Please model this.
Amino acid sequence: MNELTRIARKRTRRVIGLMAGTSLDGISAAVVDVTGSGPDTKAVLLEHATFAFDPEVKAAILKASSPETGTVDLLSELNFVIGELLAEAARKIVEQSGLSMADVDLIGSHGQTVYHCPRGGRTGWGAASTLQIGEPCVLAERTGVTTVADFRTRDVAAGGCGAPLVPYVDFVLLRSEEKSRVVLNIGGIANITVLPKGCAIDDVFAFDTGPGNIAIDGVVRVLTGGKQEFDSEGKLAAEGSVNLGIVEAVLGHEYFGTEPPKSTGREMFGSEFAGLILEKARALGLSQNDIAATTTAITARSIHDACVRFVYPKVKVDEVVASGGGTRNDTLARMLKDTFTPVPVVMSDECGVNSMAKEAIAFAVLANEAISGGRANVPGATGARRRVILGKIVPAAKGD
Ligand SMILES: Nc1ncnc2c1ncn2[C@@H]1O[C@H](COP(=O)(O)OP(=O)(O)O)[C@@H](O)[C@H]1O
Ligand SMILES: [Mg+2]
Model:
């Protein structure tokens, strides 16, 4: 039997989900048993881990991500290099789970975004585009497993932002009949999915609120002379006080006031944004701790402001369900809890979804949906004209 037919006929598929986010911390990998498809899909996490990028890989991705330094030779080669790293992550996570690649039906790989310009680029064409690298043919070749990748491009082709894509999975795994939820993921960029209680897919809306960890990471890297890549447990910020003047000034950035659907990335909130915060803070002679605290407050406030502006007028929110690396920053977590009071902020683990593995699980579920022929973009999240099937499939043959 053709391998694609074999996979399509299965009721439960074992899927590896691979995610590499804007934080550039590495590859988040998960092994997931996915049963069924569509709104009633069930996902059971078997194993997950993050495999950190070497500093040279991180530097190369940053170089590739900038229009000034991202040359075609670098992009072409890095696409294959990251393909190998993704295959390595897939191999390790399978080994860690005590399984073998022969037990795996499918891989869903997000790849590494190097450019995301859904509202038109700067080269004069005005064309919407997005580019994730990490060649799926390398993944399929190294693992012998059918691989789905490049999930964002079809949504962009359908007039959407190509992001965020996780809202479909939030709808599948976290909607509730009793509670209206805001599902918050704090990666490099922070995003929210609004799931009104008893919602149908067309009631779901979602958008990127702005910086998640990216501003904190950027500022901390400069403050520590590159010794720290992030504010571990939020310790630097915990010792500082917030400068409200800077918070207010930075929150005047036009992105925060823009109506959703909207998505953003390193292009808008990367090193220049961190530089702007540092410049304002240094002009006032703030200490390292105060700068970290202020940047953390900007992040927390921008997330809360987004809810006040764009969610509360439409939905009475019962709880915020949080996930992503940013929840490990205790100061950020505390500030979020404080600003959202009386709305409780809970971890997604309490709702049955591992908060550290959520994005990798999401790409396993999206790959499963592609193989099942389900339409997995949410127009209320991406602004697409219609619902489409996401992903490009690289088929493996039996015995590969
Ligand atoms: N122990 C920790 N303390 C503070 N921040 C952390 C911790 N662990 C992870 N993070 C933050 O989370 C980021 C990674 O989060 P992740 O959800 O993988 O984001 P992305 O999807 O953008 O890769 C790190 O860059 C860091 O900013
Ligand atoms: Mg990550």
The domain at 3-163+357-394 is CATH 3.30.420.40 (Nucleotidyltransferase; domain 5). The first strand starts at residue 12 and ends at 20. Residues 72-96 form the longest helix (25 residues). Residues 80 and 243 are 45 Å apart (CA to CA).
